[in-house]
Design a protein that fits this description.
7-stranded antiparallel beta sheet, about 25% helix, elongated
């Protein structure tokens, strides 16, 4: 004799439901956090690309403008509240600050056969170590030397020049003006920066 077994659907018990709810809540939080973090990373990356493009565009403009015209007066910093601000993202109104540094050239205030002083240089300590100094005008014209170290305003050379430099000596480091364009912006309370460095050679 065949017997038919009835199968009854069994639901979740109250205990099982109570245990499952916090597990599901935690899982949802993990998913939401992952999505938010992915969105954040994506936005930071896109902002960095835009920042580099802005900096590179300014440098390309300087190259077209010509060596003699690339001076701080023609290329001031661009602040967040400038009349013509720069935007990383115009749709979301994400502004940026652009800091422009033009360095590695000038006229000495004083010097000797083994050093050159430029009181207004404001160099970074030892940023020129190992680079090449060219005297392009005034006393000592035509001489070349390797820089062994530098302070904020003085270059020390690794060998003595034949003719000491003085306050008439015009100089270049690495044969041109060194340009640094730094784009700075704030996203979700954190400050980000991207710097592009190049040189405009004096021919």
């Amino acid at each position: 004799m065949d017997r038919t077994k009835s199968v009854k659907n069994k639901g979740f018990s109250l205990v099982e439901v109570i245990i499952a709810i916090p597990i599901l809540a935690i899982a949802m939080l993990v998913i939401v956090y992952s999505l938010l973090n992915t969105s954040l990373v994506s936005k930071v990356v896109s902002n960095k690309i835009a920042a580099k493009n802005i900096a590179q565009g300014i440098i390309e403009k300087m190259i077209l403008h010509g060596y003699d015209n690339v001076i701080p007066a023609n290329y001031p910093d661009i602040e967040y509240d400038s009349p013509n601000p720069m935007y990383l993202d115009e749709v979301n109104q994400t502004k940026c600050r652009v800091i422009i540094r033009i360095t590695g050239y000038g006229t000495a205030n004083a010097g000797s056969s083994s050093s050159l002083e430029d009181s207004g240089a404001n160099w970074i300590i030892n940023e020129w170590a190992g680079d090449t100094l060219f005297i392009i005008g005034g006393k000592g014209w035509g001489q070349i030397a390797t820089i062994s170290s530098n302070t904020e305003d003085t270059l020390t050379l690794d060998s003595s020049l034949t003719y000491a430099v003085d306050s008439t000596s015009q100089y270049l480091i690495n044969g041109g003006k060194t340009i640094e364009v730094t784009t700075e912006w704030t996203y979700r309370g954190k400050i980000y920066q991207e710097t592009v460095r190049s040189a405009i050679i004096h021919w």
